[in-house]
Amino acid sequence: MAEALNDAQKAAVEFGKGPALVVAGAGTGKTRVITERIAQLIKNGVPASNILALTFTEKAAGEMLDRVSNISLSTAMDVKVATFNGFGQELLEQYGPEWGLSNLRLLGDVGELVFVRDHFDEFELDYFAPLSNPTGQLKTLTDYISKLKQELILPEDYLQYASTLPVADEADKLDKQKQQEIAKFYAKYLEITREHHVITYDDQIFLTIQMLEARPNILRNIQERYTYLLVDELQDTNTMQSRLIDLLAGKQQNLMVVGDDDQAIYGWRGATLANILDFKKRYPAAEDITLIENFRSSQNILDAAYRLIQNNNPDRLEAMNKLDKRLVAHRGSGLDPTVRHFYTLAAELTWIAEDIAARIGNGADPGQIAVLARRNAIVQSVHAALELHGVDHVVIGMQDDLYKQPSVRQLIEALTAVSDPGNNTALFHTLVGPAFELPQTELSELSATAKRERITLAAAIQEHGSQPFKDALAQIDSWREHHADVTVGKLAYGIITDSGWKTRLYARASGNEGTHAESDADATLQAQALSEYFKTLKEFERIATVATVRSYLDNLETLQSSGEAFDGTLDISDRSINVMSVHKSKGLEWKTVYVVDCTEGSFPMATHGGSRGLDVPAELVKHRSGADERLPEERRAMYVAVTRARSELILTYGDKAKEGGQHRKPSRFLGEMFGGSTAETIEHQDQVNLELFAPSTVAGTAITPSTILKDGTYILSASQIACYIKCPRDFYYKHILSIPEPEGAAASYGTAIHAAIQRIGEQRLKGVVPPYEEIEELVKQKLPRRGFASDAIKQRMYDQALQSTKRIYDRFASDPLPLEIEKPFNVAVPDMPVRIKGRMDAVYPHDKGVEIRDYKTSSAVRTPEQAKSKTNSSTQLTVYALAWQLMHDELPASLALDYVETGQIGTVRRTDRALETLKNNLAKMVKSMETGDYPLGSQHDYCSHPPVE
Question: What is the pTM of this model?
Answer without folding.
Answer: 0.75
